What we know:
- The protein is of the alpha+beta class.
- The chain is 40% helix and 19% strand.
- The radius of gyration is 22 Å and the shape is globular.
Amino acid sequence: MNREAMARKFILSLALVVTLSACEAAQKVDPGEPPLAGATIGGDFILTGESGEPVSWNDFDGQYRTIYFGYAFCPDICPTDVQRGMAGLKRFEDENPELGSKIQPLFVSVDPDRDTPEVLTEFTDAFHPRLIGMTGDEATLRDVAMDFGTTFSRGETSEGGGYLMNHFGYTYLFGPDGEPIAMLSTDEGPEAVAAELEKWVR
């Protein structure tokens, strides 16, 4: 093979690499319509935050938001879901610091009798420094849960006075305008969460 033929082969190979890279970049820029686009979930609320002060959903306008409904005394599901969700967020933040800073993680406790501001602070601090915990009275929590497409109930009380809360383990991602975008796959681990954030956060 002469030099001219080798040069043509190299240029064609380079063009192929550039084309494939452009295709990959285009896929990252335009992932298509979000899975929850048009879903009628979400909406403003006012709950009590870790400091004891009111916290509103609209306080975070302009930011992406993740939100999870659970409770601090949950023996296994909540800590696992929250740990995976926040580990995925940390991974995304490490790779995309500027975009990661646009995401505000939120945790809503459906167990106001036990999850005091102090308990919530200890719980959220264990998973992410920016995770904000909040709760409220039962009637308000039920309204908020319904608005966000979830529900909860109190299980039977044991002889020792303990009880479990029944709830769904959904972690939602919402956009800067409060629009629902996607559910984060915490059951698939932090890598899946980070990949989903990579897909939608701009």
